[in-house]
Specification:
This protein has about 290 residues and is mainly beta. The chain has helices at about 30-40, 115, 150-160, 225-230, 280, and strands at about 1-10, 10-15, 45, 50, 55-60, 60-65, 80-85, 90-95, 125-130, 140-150, 165-175, 180, 195-205, 205-215, 255-265, 270-275. The chain has three domains: about 1-65, Roll (Structural Genomics Hypothetical 15.5 Kd Protein In mrcA-pckA Intergenic Region, Chain A), CATH 3.10.290.10; about 80-165 and about 260-270, Pseudouridine synthase (2-Layer Sandwich), CATH 3.30.2350.10; about 165-255, 2-Layer Sandwich (Pseudouridine synthase), CATH 3.30.2350. The chain is built from five helices and 16 strands. The longest helix is centred in the middle third of the chain and has 12 residues, at about 150-160.
Length: about 290
């Protein structure tokens, strides 16, 4: 096994369980939950001995954390994907609609990443790059990918702490308020979405079509789709949460992950990337410039 990190325990006032080390104790493991997961996977030793979550630590021990190098057998899939940003730590790609990000299926973006991204030269490089978040099957736009263990851990932490700025655009149907915030709970959890209508055009079929800027403050499953549908303005092409017959002109769901912004976990520089609106949007809203 390859060593990910070593840590010398300082003097302790009293013994603690190995799993009780606080998040932030280690340089490359950024949460207590992630550290516990590594212990259970047999990837943590105390003074070169196998450990469990209950292993007592008294002070001055050497904790060694190993990187899991068990290769995952993934299909070799070729999907033409545009890389918007890439360095040794992470990447941002343009997800097309109609492709799953990950899962048990063969044809997924996750299974294609090794073919489109350069292998990281960092010590904690992942054998297989990992998507940090998910976009629905019919949604297009910015998808963030981690290429190292430390980047994946930090980027996941950013999402948990709401430190990733995401902007979506959608086309909704029906007359709609110009702006607002939707706070209806989803699956019993707090859910917050902000919206602003950028432009509206008349529609014989739907009365009105709206180009709407959407900013999710939380990240629940199908949050934006459910929230705008709850106001009576479902996204065009969303026949799951919209009205019967909402086929979206046969062009699928009109929801696009336009931009993503965050602090780079390795360089501390600001990253902000965007992907212009798909043609199916600009055919309807010809004069909008974003």
């Amino acid at each position: 096994m390859t060593i990910l990190e070593t840590y010398i325990v300082p003097t302790l006032k009293k013994p603690i369980r190995l799993s009780d080390f606080k998040g932030g104790t280690f340089r490359l493991v950024h949460s207590r939950k992630a550290f516990t997961k590594l212990i259970k996977a047999g990837l943590v030793q105390v003074n070169d001995r196998a450990s469990t979550t209950a292993t007592p630590v008294f002070g001055h021990e050497t904790i060694t954390i190993f990187r899991d190098q068990t290769p995952l057998k993934r299909p070799n899939i070729d999907i033409p994907l545009n890389v918007i940003f890439e360095d040794d730590h992470l990447a941002i790609i343009a997800k097309p609609p109609g492709i799953e990000v990950s899962g048990n299926k063969r044809y997924t973006i996750e299974n294609a990443l090794c073919n489109i991204l350069k292998k990281s030269s960092q010590e904690d490089a992942l054998l297989n790059p990992e998507p940090i978040h998910r976009l629905d099957y019919p949604t297009s736009g910015c998808l963030l990918i981690g290429k190292t263990s430390s980047s994946v851990m930090m980027l996941n932490k950013y999402f948990q702490e709401k430190k990733v700025d995401k902007v979506y655009y959608a086309i909704t149907i029906g007359k709609q308020k110009t702006k607002g915030t939707i706070t209806s709970t989803l699956d019993g959890k707090e859910s917050i979405s902000h919206f602003e209508v950028i432009d509206t055009v008349a529609s014989l079929k739907y009365e009105a079509l709206n180009l709407v800027k959407l900013i999710p403050e939380t990240g629940r499953k199908h949050q934006l789709r459910k929230h705008v549908a709850s106001t009576g303005n479902p996204i065009m092409g969303d026949n799951q949460y919209g009205t019967a017959g909402n086929k979206g002109m046969g062009n699928g769901l009109y929801l696009h992950a336009f931009s993503i912004g965050f602090i780079h976990p390795a360089t501390a520089g600001r990253i902000l990337e965007h992907i212009k609106l798909p043609k199916k949007f600009t055919r309807i809203f010809k004069d909008v410039c974003l």
